[in-house]
């Protein structure tokens, strides 16, 4: 990592990679940069860690054991759709790239990982996460500020310093039965109940005169003279500069149903003041001419101007937008006509200007309210510079992807809804030898690529079904044998993707060499190169299956047996005649063992001069007889080596496969039986017995 990279990110990361060296390197690169790092070696472990710890960023290789990186990411996205994912892939993994379409991968990184590139990807993901956290917090404050007063479940009354009512919320009307016209301009005495405690009420009125906060319970009177208990909070709203009380906010909660409760209930504090102090968005209050009379701390930071210098200026000094001004005037007009705030939720994007002249993008909403018989508007302003930067990054990434498609290392053809080929890329032409002029339509392409009639008919049927499928998205891949222009045949993987436009993109990957190598690798993995017999790996796989069958079928005669044998004195023969002759002896022995078995039984070369036989559906007594028969067959045969005849003898160890032992224990005990037989001399058979 470069010395100048000193950032630390407040995120946790899950890294899924099957190569231990890559996990170690990743840990070294990111260990000091993030809060927590989780490491997984395969897709299943990665999913388990994700479910348990909920990491905020996932970095994964595209190819993984058990569950590959693509499927793992899809399962994670199903749990958290906005999860940032960084996908790593080697150059030979590019054929998997199409499988990631629709998975919303944040970044792709080529291996080996470059520390600076990795840092930048993590940084961008961490910034997006921090931005989402900030947006969530800001959204909360905006909603509270815009709707708390008007839609409060409690009665909210705003009075002047003389206790004359200037504002009531809908809850007041609902509970008391008074309309705005009947209550605005009256004093709070209109609500005084006949049974109110006089000392309590006197204390309440005293607070109005002295500008002090007051909390308590009052018996209030509705319009129909019915009384209700109210848990009441009264507190002054002071002018920010002079600290002079300008208004009182009275919040009342109807506690009639539980008035006998002795515990005092806590009441909401100064709603407007608290919300504006906590808000991370700029909150600006202006009068009906646009003159600013309130400017919160967030506005000071956003516009680089203190409240005392902002008050008295117009909103248009900072947001010179005709659209915003038009909405402001519309809100004022609506409030004057209806005496209600508009809840249309008008939020728009525009440009604002800091005091130093810097222009930046904003998101703004405007709501009108009435204070002291005058209309004011509250503007909630959010700086969306970072969001716009992220949006531009997304656009840039789309442009990069388009360039990647045009220069892709795999074949691409574009097909319309009728099956006509609209475009083929250079790799497609190189792969099959046909240029676009030679295959102007789908019918011509199918005839040339699939000359055998029945095979072509089967393929075109499936093709037509995919074309007619209305929903966009990836289709099932096809692995087809294609005849090229030079008459050679290739095994090709076709990945069709249906676009919303109705057209389809088909990606083509030549798998001819890969399929050849797969067959070779499968043989090498499961067969001994010298004898051609199944090897130890193959035997262990069969043995696991046989043990499971024995567990389920123990009561139904589902027993089997495992026999280990080696050639008695093979080391002496090998030393005397040389390794070439020793190899010939092993080959001959393997053939004789194979020919002496029943159908369903299998002989394996375990290693060196040791062989193993799995007898299926056989008791221990039957296995002993089979071993003796194999011994006789080998003993009676004269092996010709270097023009000389040799008699061979076998040492054998046998164990029953009854499902009571796991594979490791079974192998260990069977080999111990073999070693005991070798100690007893040539041509000995030892049957394992429980001690």
Question: How would you sum up this structure in a few lines?
Answer:
It contains 21 helices and 28 strands.
Topology, pairings included?
Blueprint: E1 9-16, H1 20-30, E2 34-40, H2 43-53, E3 57-61, H3 69-79, E4 85-89, E5 107-110, H4 115-147, E6 155-159, E7 165-168, H5 170-176, H6 180-183, H7 198-210, E8 214-221, E9 227-238, E10 245-254, H8 271-278, E11 282-287, E12 292-295, H9 297-303, H10 307-310, H11 322-338, E13 347-353, E14 359-371, E15 374-383, H12 385-406, E16 411-415, E17 421-424, H13 426-432, H14 442-449, H15 453-468, E18 473-474, E19 478-483, E20 489-498, E21 504-510, H16 512-526, H17 536-553, E22 560-567, H18 570-577, H19 579-595, E23 602-607, E24 610-615, H20 620-635, E25 638-641, E26 644-647, E27 650-657, H21 663-680, E28 685-687
Parallel strand pairs: 1-2, 1-3, 3-4, 4-5, 27-28
Antiparallel strand pairs: 6-7, 6-10, 8-9, 9-10, 11-12, 11-15, 13-14, 14-15, 16-17, 16-21, 18-20, 19-20, 20-21, 22-24, 22-27, 23-24, 25-26
Helix pairs in contact: 2-3, 18-19
């Amino acid at each position: 990592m470069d010395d100048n990279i000193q950032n630390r990110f407040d995120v946790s990361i899950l890294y899924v990679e099957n190569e231990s060296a890559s996990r170690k390197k990743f840990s070294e690169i990111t260990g000091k940069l993030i809060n927590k790092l989780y490491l997984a070696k395969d897709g299943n472990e990665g999913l388990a860690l994700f479910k348990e710890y909920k990491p905020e960023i996932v970095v994964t290789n595209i190819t993984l054991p058990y569950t590959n990186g693509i499927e793992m990411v899809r399962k994670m996205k199903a749990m958290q759709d906005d999860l940032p994912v960084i996908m790593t892939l080697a150059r030979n993994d590019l054929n998997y790239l199409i499988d990631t379409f629709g998975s919303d991968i944040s970044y792709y990184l080529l291996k080996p990982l470059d520390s600076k590139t990795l840092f930048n990807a993590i940084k961008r993901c961490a910034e997006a996460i921090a931005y989402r956290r900030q947006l969530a917090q800001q959204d909360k404050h905006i909603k509270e500020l815009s709707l708390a007063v008007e839609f409060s479940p409690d009665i909210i009354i705003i009075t002047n310093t003389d206790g004359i009512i200037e504002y009531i919320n809908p809850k007041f009307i609902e509970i008391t039965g008074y309309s705005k016209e009947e209550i605005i301009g009256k004093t709070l005495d209109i609500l005084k109940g006949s049974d109110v405690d006089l000392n309590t009420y006197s204390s309440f009125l005293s607070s109005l005169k002295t500008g002090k906060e007051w909390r308590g319970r009052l018996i209030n009177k509705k319009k129909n003279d019915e009384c209700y208990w109210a848990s009441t909070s009264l507190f002054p709203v002071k002018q920010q500069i002079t600290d002079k009380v300008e208004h009182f906010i009275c919040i009342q909660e109807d506690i009639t149903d539980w008035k006998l409760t002795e515990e005092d209930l806590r009441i909401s504090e100064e709603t407007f003041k608290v919300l504006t102090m906590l808000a991370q968005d700029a909150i600006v209050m202006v009068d009906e001419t646009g003159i600013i009379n309130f400017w919160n701390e967030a506005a000071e930071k956003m516009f680089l101007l203190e409240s005392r210098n902002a008050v008295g200026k117009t909103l248009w000094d900072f947001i010179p937008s005709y659209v915003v001004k038009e909405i402001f005037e519309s809100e004022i007009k609506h409030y004057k006509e209806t005496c209600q705030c508009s809840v249309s939720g008008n939020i728009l994007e525009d440009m604002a200007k800091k005091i130093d002249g810097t222009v930046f993008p904003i998101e703004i909403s405007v709501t009108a309210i009435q204070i002291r018989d005058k209309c004011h508007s509250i503007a909630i302003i959010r700086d969306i510079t970072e969001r716009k930067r992220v949006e531009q990054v997304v656009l840039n990434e789309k442009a990069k992807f388009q360039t990647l498609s045009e220069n892709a290392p795999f074949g691409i053809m574009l097909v319309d809804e009728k099956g006509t080929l609209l475009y083929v890329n250079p790799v497609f032409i190189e792969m099959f030898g046909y240029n676009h002029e030679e295959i102007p339509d789908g019918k011509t392409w199918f005839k040339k690529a699939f000359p055998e009639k029945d095979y072509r008919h089967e393929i075109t049927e499936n093709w037509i079904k995919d074309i007619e499928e209305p929903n966009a998205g990836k289709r099932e891949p096809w692995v087809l044998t294609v005849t090229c222009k030079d008459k050679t045949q290739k095994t090709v993987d076709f990945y069709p993707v249906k676009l919303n436009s109705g057209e389809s993109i088909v990606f083509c990957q030549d798998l001819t060499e890969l399929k050849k190598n797969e067959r070779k690798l499968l043989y090498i993995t499961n067969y001994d190169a010298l004898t051609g017999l199944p090897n130890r790996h193959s035997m262990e796989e069969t043995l696991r299956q046989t043990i499971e069958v024995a567990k389920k079928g123990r009561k139904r005669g589902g027993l089997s047996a495992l026999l280990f044998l080696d050639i008695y004195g093979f080391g002496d023969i090998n030393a005397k005649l040389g390794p070439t002759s020793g190899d010939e002896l092993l080959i001959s022995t393997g053939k004789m063992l194979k020919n002496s078995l029943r159908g369903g039984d299998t002989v394996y070369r375990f290693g060196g001069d040791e062989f193993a036989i799995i007898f299926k559906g056989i008791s221990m007594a039957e296995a002993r007889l089979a071993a003796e028969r194999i011994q006789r067959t080998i003993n009676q045969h004269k092996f010709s080596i270097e023009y000389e005849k040799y008699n061979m003898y076998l040492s054998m160890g046998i164990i029953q496969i009854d499902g009571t032992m796991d594979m490791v224990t079974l192998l260990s005990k069977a080999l111990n039986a073999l070693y005991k037989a070798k100690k007893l001399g040539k041509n000995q058979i030892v049957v394992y017995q429980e001690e």
